[in-house]
Amino acid sequence: MNYALIVYGAPYSQQAAHSALRFAEALPHRGHRAATVFFYHDGIYNATRLMTPPQDEPNLRQRWSLLAKAHNTSLLVCVASALKRGIVDNKEARRHGLDGDSLAPEFELTGLGQLLDAALTHDCVVTFGA
Amino acid sequence: MVLHILNRSPFASRVHEDMLRAMVNEDRVLLIEDGVSAALKAGITLLPTIDERLYALKEDLEARGLSQRCDPCVNIVDVDGFVALTEQADKVVSWF
Fold it and tell me: Which residue in the set A3, A125, A129 is minimally distant from B96, CB to CB?
């Protein structure tokens, strides 16, 4: 089955990102795939390319990135949640005259329509709330 | 069958009361994160009438040192069991 996961929790603040990653990494054990992960509210902080955790702690951005590469998972970030919190891609940075971008390359800024689309087209949706 | 996921301790939040009101007979509950404290003997009294339809995530119980303190009626599942529960559900609803 194709799964869509929704992540509300900021990395290292709530457990939501850890729970979602553990679930996503377990899906292939039973023949499934995390096809889409949608980051919403404070969950968008998972998408910062500037995340630099200590080496003896889990690197959540790296694990999302590995997940995306291994299973062709779409990592979608709510654009409205992201921009107001300072997570911008190159295009938005230029549009708003900012001196740099902060979105990690595996992630994509999208609208809520993409979330609705995921809910309608995937076999199962699991929300990891914060 | 709807799988309800609760990640809040029933001692710290009252969202489990909303969950109980939304549940029908065959629905199941999976306790994750701080929600696993509902699997304790004192917590189980706050989730009446669920009995054998109550599950708790092993990894989150272990992380909190609660594995040996669960009420015997709780089904303990690991993350693969979590995936299996979502397979069997028509819908998954999270309460937080």
Answer: A129
